[in-house]
Amino acid sequence: MSTSDASNPATADRSLRGLLFLLATIAGVSVANIYYNQPLLDNFRQSFPASASWVGTVPAVTQLGYAAGMLLLAPLGDRFDRRRLILLQIAGMCVALIVAAAAPSLTVLIGASLAIGVLATIAQQAVPFAAELAPPSQRGHAVGMVMSGLLLGILLARTAAGVIAEYFGWRSVFGASVVALLALAVVIILRLPKSQPTSTLPYGKLLVSMWHLLLEHRALREASLTGAALFAAFSIFWSVLALLLAGAPFHLGPQAAGLFGIVGAAGALAAPLAGKFADRRGPRAIITVSIVLVAIAFVVFGASAKSIAGLVIGVIVLDIGVQAAQISNQSRIYALKPEARSRVNTVYMVAYFIGGALGSAVGAAVWPAFGWLGVSVAGIVFASLAAWNHLRLPARAEVLG
């Protein structure tokens, strides 16, 4: 923001809102790339019939790549100008998407998907950027606005991918993302200011410091494992849904699988409410309720192998549970060490997406062997793991970290 903007509160507020909207868009458009492939699995199976049994690997390696990108790239935002990092990652992402769109084999698609996952961590530069731009009195609102953009990107990615694939083919999904990212890059160059680095630690020490944070804070370890287990359950469902809908009795294409993302918008509506309840009742209580909701969702799924209505109800319950837990867990970990929020967030999100990759891999293994009932049982197992881990930490340990 310019000096003249800063001297005029109304103009400054409008300028800040515009920048936060841009950061929210950056977060949503970038993170969407790791979810585009989930409603396309049946399309991949048809395009690469010789490797059909390996299509579930695509979402798994994408999420594993995101976890790796979180670990290796996200901490750089404390050390370098985030604007430049965002533009460099967009350039790399466009290359990876073009390779995915032109992939002649499933092996090439898997490799491109890994790169897409690593580079999609652009979203994790946008959140701390918002905290830097906003004054302290508006910091919570700023971070919440960008997280809303990220959440909408997650929810609507499947819908967009399903619709585009239905009418133009699955390769067009990745091509459309390239166009969107290039347009976004132009706006970033014109509108987004440079950021100010907050650390002078060399890259190696920056990474090592995250390990020390994990050892120092028991609450961070507990939140990370709980979040990972819940996201594993979430990913099991979404990575297999397209395969369930493609078979009997539904015989539905990728558009139908993608439209379930709109149903998941209930999670986006629940997120701000979860934050308010976490402030009033404490985040641990909200996480406990969230775990119960995730377990209930998979019970509903288990009874809904032939029911669209049952699947819709289960999606709503699942997304509310997972998103409420996510907001509450982040509320907890940000209070542990305010001066190291980026690195604390990195530790948590690395674990979170490793859980997502594990969930997708488990879904890919369980689906052909045990069918939809096996997938539902696996989701309940991960919810149970989250419950055991969450409840074994005494509430008083939260204060001690």
Given as residue ranges, the uncertain stretches (5+ residues, pLDDT < 50) are 2-7
The Cα radius of gyration reads: 20 Å
Q: How many beta-strand segments?
A: 0
* Structural class estimated from helices and strands: mainly alpha
- So how many helices? 17
Any idea of the CATH topology of the largest domain? Growth Hormone, Chain: A
Helix content: over 70%
Number of domains: 2
Beta strand %: under 5%
Question: Based on the structure given, which CATH architecture of the largest domain is correct?
Answer: Up-down Bundle
Give the overall average pLDDT: 85
Shape: globular
CATH class of the largest domain: Mainly Alpha
Summarize the helix and strand pattern as letters. HHHHHHHHHHHHHHHHH
Tell me the span between the first and last alpha carbons. Answer: 37 Å
CATH superfamily of the largest domain: MFS general substrate transporter like domains
Biggest sheet record: none
Transmembrane segments: 18-36, 48-73, 85-103, 109-130, 142-164, 170-190, 228-250, 256-273, 285-302, 308-325, 346-366, 372-391
Pfam family, one: MFS_1
GO molecular function: transmembrane transporter activity
Keywords: Membrane, Transmembrane, Transmembrane helix
